[in-house]
Amino acid sequence: MLYRLSLQVVPWLVAWLIRIWFSTCRVTVHGAEHRLDTLDAGRPIVASFWHYTMFFVFYQLRRESAVIMVSASRDGEYIARLAQELGFSTARGSRNNRGMQALKDLLKAAATGRNTAIVADGSQGPPRVAQPGAILLASRTGVPVLPMMWSASRYLAIPSWDRTAIPKPFARVDYLYGEPLSVPPGLKAEGIEEYRLELENRLNELYRRAWRIHGREEH
Questions:
Q1: Structure confidence at residue 134 as a pLDDT band (50, 70, 90)
Q2: Which of 26, 51, 83, 208 has its CA 20 to 30 A from that of 59?
Q3: Helix-strand-coil percent breakdown of the chain, rounded to 5?
Q4: Cα separation values, 176 from 98, 120, 148, 167, 202, Å
């Protein structure tokens, strides 16, 4: 009973808190040409980002129509409902629970021209190690993967496996778009691993660039 009630209230409250809190931040966008070439040009993408960035990414992309893969776990229900409060659709699944069904849902969405999003290191990690989901999706649909990352001058870090970060009010946030990664169609296991590693390297390079802006090597 308490769980069901909290599912009704908590995501709604957090969504409004995010809107108010993050609206105080000063955002500088880097790599805007990559956004112009994809999102602003109306081309569908597979958005790819590390798990620690999730809350601000949701805020930054809230005006985009996208289907986001969210864990099918009990805790993932809160994230799914938060994403829905911010205007996203969700596909529920992870490596250990309904993962293939979620990927099929994303394939259907991409096939109709919708943007999709997959947290690159998944819901359980390890942190900053890419999983193959985004590469599989891109290879099956011909949609490019658009890496993205953010860093902040001041932030809070939750003591979780990925140190999920939240910018403090009035922080300076730098939001980086990487070069879109085009993935060949019909990749087999060896090719998927090659491009998975390429995505991981691009995301980690973007991560280092983002945090060096604020004089850090990591968050």
A1: very high
A2: 208
A3: 40, 20, 35
A4: 31, 16, 6, 15, 12
Q: How far apart are CA 13 and CA 126, in angstroms?
A: 29
**All domains of the chain in start order, with CATH:** 2-212 (3.40.1130.10)
In the DSSP assignment, the letter for residue 52 is G
| 49: β partners | 119
Closest alpha carbon to 146 in 185, 116, 189? 116
Instruction: Tell me the pLDDT band of 98, cut-offs 50, 70 and 90.
Output: low
What three-state secondary structure class fits 92?
Answer: strand
Q: What is the pLDDT of residues 35-68, one digit of tens each?
A: 988 998 889 999 999 999 999 999 999 988 899 9
- Asked if residue 129 lies in contact with residue 199, where contact means CB atoms within 8 angstroms, the answer is no
Token reading at 55:
């809350």
Give the global pTM.
0.93
- Confidence label for 8 from pLDDT (cuts 50, 70 and 90): confident
How many residues in total does the chain contain? 219
Helix (H) or strand (E) run with residue 209 in it: helix 189-212
